[in-house]
Amino acid sequence: LPPPPTAGASAAKAARTLIGAPDGTAPSVVEWVASVARLTEPAHVQWCDGTDAEFGSLVETMLDAGTIVPVPARPGSYLARSHPDDVARVEDRTFICSVDDEDAGPTNHWRDPESMRETLGGLFQGAMRGRTMYVIPFSMGPVGGPISKLGIELTDSPYVVASMHAMTRVGTNVLDAIAEGEDWVPAVHSVGAPLAAGRADTPWPCNPTKYISHFPETREIWSFGSAYGGNALLAKKCFALRIASVQARDEGWLAEHMLIVRMTHDDGRRLHLAAAFPSACGKTNLAMLKPSIPGWNVETIGDDIAWMRTGADGSLHAINPENGFFGVAPGTSEATNATAMAMLDRDTIFTNVALTDDGDVWWEGMTKHAPEGLTDWRGERWTPESGRPAAHPNARFTVRATQCPSIADDWDAPEGVPIDAIVFGGRRPSQVPLVMQARDWEHGVYVGATISSQQTAAAEGPVGAIRRDPFAMLPFCGYDMGDYFRHWLDIGQRLGRNAPAIFSVNWFRRDADGGFLWPGFSENARVLEWIAGRVAGTADGVDTAIGVLPSDGALDVSGLDLPEGVLDELLEVDAPAWLAELVDVDAFFSQFERLPFGLRRQLNHVRWRLEQQ
Ligand code: SAT
Ligand code: MN
Fold first, then answer.
1. Which has fewest Cβ within 10 Å: 11, 140, 345, 384?
2. pLDDT at residue 488 in the model
């Protein structure tokens, strides 16, 4: 592989000519883009500017190639059908290539950077033959903001470029900022399907061999073989979480898998909340919540990633570094997320949903019954008798944030919003209560470190199995999670009295028949109201062995027809079940050689309290 770009490089004229770099492009960028072009041998190099005209020509290219088809019922919208084997993140092909294997920690797949460079060098050689290499300068967060960061992605996939238009801020002003000396992250992506001269392309080129590789020390990303979102839109999980988490560790801030919302009441109550849930556990729905209880309003700031830094006022400020939403389509409906439904009525790229004969999209859960006349996500005719879903369970929509009716006016404020509460959640059918507050920051870090959740279709693997997913960052932390927990403890120390309160929630409790105990969705506002009350010091809680739970009557359930006893069940502490769980937590912690002592102390404390119960 070519080496990472070097600041102060001087670019030869030949390099500029080879890639047609715009005047004024930083020599370090020219040198690096040229070195990747020499390796991958694209037929053309195209410098992207993020304009509507550029988007229009990408659409033409993709329509010609059959990558997308129009969705006439929704203006400016398209459906992409992926290769059937390229539908989700591939965690066991995702690598952290730190110099020292211990820096990747026990939860990541580590590869030696030298040997990975060699492997990738072979794979990328000639990988873009016959294709266009797009150069995408992008910013995470508003360009020039104090929490924002810049990157450049090189890709041979027009689908990736079009998606990056929605998901990041693409523009030549990024190249200008880099030329003025701003730091940036280099990211290279290829679908790994060079086109022989005269050979016809396939609609969704990809390669059965996939490598999603990160080099934390040199801040590089190299991704090969997949065009699916989290594997290919390198600004998202690869940069904004895996590489950014390493930068955050080194620079004293946080890069987290969290939504950001503001909830306000007519009477002036106000709460800014950041919440971590594993992929496909309802972050987008919570980010666009329509409160069921009167007086409250929710504004969306982000639905997937939060970058948080201490602001001038000493409190933790968060930005959403993204520019759009890459949300799970199945299950999205007027009942579960009317805001998202409104947002998707135009200018949306759908991936792997079904198409109706009258030119609209459909997915499981959108309506109770499937419409007559459907083509499934693979392009085959489909009826309810087909015995398979019409949309892939991880089918997605890609849409700009500004299209969201609930987006906050100041959602892209460079300095972010002050976070009052941090929430951790997962999909747990039993035991974990509806809501709980951690006693203090250290206990909160313990709660975050011990989240577990049933696996969803967002990644390859057995759906339904419960796995520990600390901070919902298991697939996304770019370094040793023992060090990551310590970093969180350090941040709390530094924030002191300004530290946000920490909570856990679980919307996914089930009864004996498998039905949900809690109605969820807009009714989750009741839980957020209690959280707001705890932050303000007005809501009552009882201190239990596992944390602070709502006191009798403190959670407003008026007007909900919860069956007798259900609320008690949602808020009970089942000591034997928790004691059994702590055995698993203990084993989970034991794999971390660098586990901070504070987490052991918390585990012992919780165990001791449960034994007293
Ligand atoms: O595929 S993505 O990683 O972008 C989305 C997700 O799994 O959260
Ligand atoms: Mn996510």
1. 384
2. 98
